[in-house]
Amino acid sequence: MLTEEERRDIEREILQNERKRAAAVEVLKIVQKHRGWVSDEIHDLAGILEMTPAELDAVATFYSLIFRKPVGKHVILVCDSVSCWVMGYEKILDQLTSRLGIGLNETSADGQFTLLPVACLGACDRAPAMMIDEMLYTYLTPEKIDGILEKYR
Amino acid sequence: MERPLTGNMKPDRQPLTLKEYEEVGGYQAVHKALRMAPPDIVDAVKNSNLRGRGGAGFPTGIKWSFMPMGSDVPRPKYLICNADEMEPGTFKDRLLLEGNPHQLLEGMIVSAYALNVDIAYIFLRWEYRLAAERIERAIAEAYENYYLGKNILRSDYSLELRLHVSAGRYICGEETALLNALEGKRAIPRAKPPHPQVSGLWGKPTIVNNTETLCNIPHIITKGVEWYKGLSHTKDGGTKIYGMSGKVKRPGAWELPMGTSMKELLEVHAGGMKEGYQFRGILPGGASTDFLVEEHLDVPMDYDSVQKAGSRMGTGQMIVLDHKTCPVGMALNLERFFARESCGLCTPCREGLPWIAMILQAIEEGEGQPGDVEILEQQCRLLGPGNTFCALAPGAVEPLQSALKYFREDFERGISGRRNARGKRAHDNSWRRFTLTTNPTK
Fold it and tell me: Using CA atoms, how far apart are residues B55 and B307, in angstroms rounded to an integer?
């Protein structure tokens, strides 16, 4: 069941769109903002958007930043594209995985972090780069990783 | 040297407010355009030789001329700014979006007026958080100051402009996939024809232009076609925001005359190679362009010259391959990216790219089989232009086909247990943590 607050945010969002279904991605983001991920409430949402649940689930599972399964409290998006790779992405990834005790596409046991790869973050002149939640981190070195992670613990 | 797109930006990269932008001549193009006839603006853009900065380099004025005009065409008509910058190695639109969002809005308002557009969208990737915040603020300011909304500056022209923030996937940057994304669908490319100009968003006439392209428009209108053409070293008009990343001394982006040579970009603007690194090759315009090598460094960076050299100017954002980085590993990184980002709609792309990545993995590990290089070459042909729905797969094989040509020995060294570049593996086994097809957050 959607909460009152979610329903209100969703209805406000839909009004800003030319057609209901155009709000689909934004509506999924609203649910994700409240719950961290998009659970099977997708069935309620579909009706509001005048879509079938299958249509909305097809959208939800297409976009990489809509999560259809639970993720950690913080989502780390580590750029694995070519400039970051040339500039030492693998060392950054090794540091992240050893500090968090998880591999790419996994969530730490304490539920704090999920580690995901992301397409080029457009920070190639400041590579390697990653995002944690909405914050961009650049000029990464393995040494810097510990201090950054500390801020989120 | 004039830098119309970036010259007014603040050194601390804080965005210009509307008032600050007006003080440096901003929004003059809107005032001027509203007194012009729309076809005259389209003609000016045509004559300016502005070519699309998103990567394909299609002449903007020609694209615009396909937009149906007149009172009996379907409504509403749309203009969309493609700000879904995700081409690996490319970071020019971020600079424009964060540094001066009003310049983009001005470009969009002038373009929308010229094309008789009713509703405009900025399609932005989610990860550009700072840009999203600054664009929102700029849009609000523009509405407050009557540059947007009903009867812009008391003229008969009205325009609504909205920001759409996406949710990931490289394919959203493909023009027709972007339209599906805006309609709340999976971002899979559409069949063409019909082209978006005729049947685009919600089946209505639509023009999609790249951020940098639209940022050029106000300057063409304010300062004129001749001035604009004079900015360039070649027949393509204007300046270009070039960028360079990799093991160079000063990676960065610079607005320079169109047609600046790769050598000048590398040696002067990027400060040359980093201490201890030698130049080996370069992707001239993002991940989906063919490698060029030392003999090409004198090539001017404009659309036709780079094409003649066997590659594409693409986004004009260069990625340097140094002698300590393994070209097989680099090709593997690129192909793994494209395999992951394929939308899965058409078979050659969905099946071919993971196959390519698997073979490259084996070669990278020194475990390639005899015939693997030939299979890769065959795949490059099968995934080339004409065999797939959109340009993702043809773009994906460009760096591979050229890597096979220029760095063939590195690939052959990975066949039948022979070791690869410099006698050892360049990388650890971290690829094993990758899954190409399964995203466990689904």
Answer: 12
Contact B263, B298 (CB under 8 A): yes
Q: Are A116 and A79 in contact (CB under 8 A)?
A: no
Residues of A in contact with B182 (CB under 8 A): 22
Residues 97-116, chain A, touching B (beta carbon < 8 A): 97, 103-106, 114, 116
Going from the C-alpha of B184 to that of each of A68, A141, B346, the distances in angstroms are 17, 39, 21
Q: Report which of B379, B311, B315 is spatially closest to residue B173, judged by C-alpha positions.
A: B315
Tokens of B360: 């490259």
Each domain of chain B, given as residue ranges in start order, spans 18-230, 239-322, 327-436
Section A15-27 average pLDDT: 96
Q: How far is Cα B321 from Cα B238, in angstroms, rounded to an integer?
A: 28
Contacts 24+ apart (CB under 8 A), B15-21: B15/B98, B15/B99, B15/B100, B15/B101, B15/B102, B15/B134, B15/B137, B15/B138, B16/B100, B16/B102, B17/B141, B18/B102, B18/B138, B18/B141, B18/B142, B18/B145, B18/B147, B21/B100, B21/B102, B21/B103, B21/B106
B283 and chain A in contact, CB less than 8 A: yes
Q: Does the pLDDT of residue B433 top 80, yes or no?
A: no
Say if strands B279-283 and B317-322 run parallel, antiparallel, or are unpaired.
Answer: antiparallel
Residues 6+ apart with CB under 8 A from B222: B25, B28, B29, B32
Indicate the average pLDDT of chain A. Answer: 95
Q: Which residues contact B391 (CB under 8 A, 6 or more apart)?
A: B56, B174, B288, B385
Residues of B in contact with A117 (CB under 8 A): 340, 434
Fold classification of B327-436 is de novo design (two linked rop proteins) (1.20.1440)
Does position B370 have pLDDT exceeding 70, yes or no?
yes
Within 10 angstroms of residue B384's Cβ, the number of other Cβ atoms is: 15
* pLDDT on residue A82: 98
Tell me the chain B residues in contact with residue A19 when contact means C-beta distances shorter than 8 Å.
183-184, 202
CATH of B18-230, one of 3.90.1170.20, 3.30.70.2740, 3.40.50.11540, 1.10.10.60: 3.40.50.11540
Q: Which domains does chain A have, with CATH numbers?
A: 4-62 (1.10.10), 74-150 (3.40.30.10)
Instruction: Tell me phi and psi for residue B377, to 5 degrees.
Output: -65, -40
pLDDT digits (tens, 9 = 90+) for B260-289: 999 999 999 999 999 999 999 999 999 999
Contact at CB, A86 and B251, closer than 8 angstroms: no
Task: Kindly tell me the sign of the dihedral angle through the C-alpha atoms of B161, B167, B170, B176.
Answer: negative
More confident residue, B203 or B416: B203
pTM higher than 0.90 for the full model?
yes
**Tens-digit pLDDT profile for residues B288-346:** 999 999 999 999 999 999 999 999 999 999 999 999 999 999 999 999 999 999 999 99
| C-alpha–C-alpha distance, residues B294 and B121, integer Å | 42
Confidence of residue B416 (pLDDT cuts 50, 70, 90): confident
For B198-235, write each residue's pLDDT tens digit: 999 999 999 999 999 999 999 999 999 999 999 999 99
The total of other beta-carbon atoms located within 10 Å of residue A147's CB is 8
Fold category of B239-322 in CATH:
Ubiquitin-like (UB roll) (3.10.20)
